[in-house]
Amino acid sequence: MSKQAQHWEKTRGLLMVTLAIWFVFSIGIFLFGAEMNEVTGPFGYPLTYWFTCQGSLGIFVILIFWFANRQEKIDEEFGFSERGDD
Amino acid sequence: MIKGNFIDNLPKVYGIYTGGFLAFIIIMAIAEQMGMSAKVIGICFVAFTVAIYAIIGWLSRTAQADAYYVAGRQVPTVFNGMATAADWMSGASFVAMAGGIYFKGYGYMALLVGWTGGYVLVASLLAPYLRKFGCYTVPDFIGTRYGGNLARLLAVIVLTVASFTYVTAQINATGTIASVALDIPFQYAVYVGLVSILLCSMLGGMRGVTWTQVAQYIVLIIAYLLPVFWISNKIGAGFFPHFMLADEVARIGDLEQQFGFVANSKENLALVPKGLAGITKAHSAVNATPWAFISLALAMMMGTASLPHVMMRYFTTPSVKAARKSVGWSLFFIFLLYSSAPMLATLSKLSLMDPSLPTGIIGKSVADVQAIDWYQNWNQANLMFISDFNGNGTVELNEFFMGGKAVVLATPEIAGLPYVISGLVAAGGMAAAMSTADGLILAIANALSHDLYYKIIDPKAETAKRLVVARVLLVVIGFAGATIAAMEIQGILGSVIWAFDFAMSGLFFPLVLGVWWKRANREGAIAGMALGLISGAGYLIWVRNGGSGFLGITQLTFGIFGSAVSLVAMVVVSLITSEPNAATQKMVDEVRVPSGRTILGKQ
After folding, report:
1. What pLDDT does residue B4 have?
2. What are phi and psi of B276, to 5 degrees?
3. Chain A closest-CA separation from residue B194 CA (Å)
4. Going by fewer Cβ within 10 Å, which terminus of chain B is more open, N or C?
5. Which one of A18, A45, A61 has the shortest CB-CB distance to B246?
6. B136: CATH
7. What is the pLDDT of residue A86?
8. Cβ–Cβ under 8 Å, residues B407 and B95
9. Do B44 and B426 touch, CB atoms closer than 8 A?
10. Do A56 and B249 touch (CB under 8 A)?
11. What are the CA-CA distances from residue B580 to residues B91, B146, B149 (Å)?
């Protein structure tokens, strides 16, 4: 398999992991919104309420930075990263 | 004071700017103590900030296509993040979001999740690849990847429909704020707003818009956060509201139980001025079905990834790597405001509902409440209303009504903050609406001037001529938007949500599959865009005219239907027609790796 095909396979793998995490916190947990709201979440807010106010939003921020770092590593591994800029 | 190149000095420049703005707020606060009237303070805030944006717009003037269309591709990640956040957070986010949460609770908060979750799709599926492509506009990508003028033209049409729906709402919002702050009739205020918007974008294009948007972000985030923290501290709810309002949220739940949600009769509701609503939904309880919540969130997420004015911000970064990071920064800066909106709604509701707080009005006598200054002001502005329906002489929960905008605009006054804060909030709302309007008008004008005029009509046009066309279009589109806004056809929030649905119906799958599915070809993309937009729009018209809809898809989520049709059409048509030629396939391979030259090169 060519270097490029390997790079793309890893990139696709990372995409799948990223989208899976995204799916859980944007869609998955809200299937059980009513049940989860009975539980007390961080800082004492009802759990579902907390996810809609802060939790999911914050997780998305972290997820994007994590994704960007992982993708950079993949690019470097195969020598496809850009040089001399940031 | 400033040496060397502008880009290297950005932190310093905006540091001085932020300091200057804070000093201006303090000067205004002192002036208020010395007796300056509320009206003059309001005018000063709006005039001062708009003047600064206009100066930035003038300093950023340019005659180069690269600077005009993509700000020279040298905007650093963090600053591009701020600019995107301002581009993204519209008048609706700023003025109406906390109100929506206040009145509708959980069902509305799907928008918070949707408008942030969409950035994960932007970062992982699209932004870095479109940056590598090196295009000027979103239709530029569609036109080159799939080839042919028809595909390009369809992309321009989808972009124009979605962005134009959105931009009228933003010009409307600038008009509303300008008319309140400057005390002029709305029909004229709309054009004052428009001129302010054009001052930022006309001379410098994307470069002007970028640097004004950063300045606008700083104003709007200060204007949003300062009152939230101040009110929270003032009523003793906690010095960092985001982590400390659990007791207040629980208290609202108890008060809701105590007062009970009493439904008003039709005759009584007919007395309430149009656009005002009472508290009828639980604050923190789950009050929507899973599908209602998820479908709205999903539509907003896919819409986010298809809206061209957001996507084109990532064309301005220096590299592919920077584009990815920049999406993260964008969402971080958006998060700062979005996570504060529910806190503001909580504080606002508690201030009004809790009889043990001096600001509480529920349970007090109607005559007393009607004598309060702020009640009279906002009642006059048609944003507050009380009526003693049951005739017992006290205000009940179902007898108090408020407009959605009042949560952001009136809460500082209700909580007894000085007027300078209200002036600041007006400046923030103006910044939010202007920055989004600028991004949208520029997206439309750029698509028409670059893709329609330069690429389709006159490919030999000189740069100077192209930029003249771009600027003329900017003004024409701005005026068209303002004229429609002045007619006041639709509420701010409704048209914003429609824009997302239109964008996702026509563009989401043609964009995503263009990168991720090599087999996608021209015929497929054309079918996907055309059928997606037509079926989405058709569904909207059907539901608006009394159609029952299906699968719980409403007029707010019609994009789910449109994009599903788009996906099926695109896959089926691609597979029954021949695969893209070798050159196109090679182009897709190159888009997928960050290193090397951009596909379109320097134009």
Report:
1. 61
2. -95, 150
3. 33
4. N
5. A45
6. 1.20.1730.10
7. 43
8. no
9. no
10. no
11. 43, 8, 16
> What domain range is B306 assigned to?
37-50+73-256+275-348+417-591
Digit-coded pLDDT (tens) for B341-398: 999 999 888 888 888 888 888 888 888 888 888 888 888 877 888 888 887 888 888 8
Q: Is A44 on the interface with B (CB under 8 A)?
A: yes
Pair of tokens at residue B456: 């389709």
From chain A, pick out residues whose CB is under 8 angstroms from the CB of B242: 54
The CA distance from B21 to B549, in Å, is 50
Partner B, chain A 14-33, Cβ-Cβ below 8 Å:
14-15, 18-19, 22, 25-27, 30-33
ipTM of the complex in this document: 0.94
Please report residues of A whose CB lies closer than 8 A to that of B322.
85-86
Q: In chain A, count of helices (H) and strands (E)?
A: 4, 0
Q: Count CB pairs under 8 A between chains A and B.
A: 152
Residue B487 DSSP class:
T
Using CB atoms, which residue from A8, A30, A71 is nearest to B293?
Answer: A30
Contacts of B592 in chain A (CB under 8 A): 4, 7-8, 11
Beta strand pairing call for B384-386 and B276-277: unpaired
- Can you read off the two tokens belonging to residue B139? 């239709």
Domain count, chain B: 1
Within 8 A by CB and 6+ apart from B433, the residues are B90, B91, B94, B95, B170, B171, B173, B174, B177, B193
Q: Is B363 left (phi over 0), alpha (psi -120 to 50) or beta?
A: left
What pLDDT band is residue B1 in, cutting at 50, 70 and 90? very low
B602: pLDDT strictly greater than 50? no
* Nearest Cβ partner for B320 among A49, A58, A82: A82
CA distance B559 to chain A (A): 17
CB contact under 8 A, A80 and B112: no
Least Cα distance to B493 among B217, B105, B94, B160 occurs for B94
Q: Residue B176's closest CA among B438, B504, B429, B490?
A: B429
- pTM exceeds 0.90: yes
Quick check: is B163 in a domain? yes
Q: Is B363 on the interface with A (CB under 8 A)?
A: no
DSSP conformation letters of B181-220: HHT--HHHHHHHHHHHHHHHHTTTHHHHHHHHHHHHHHHH
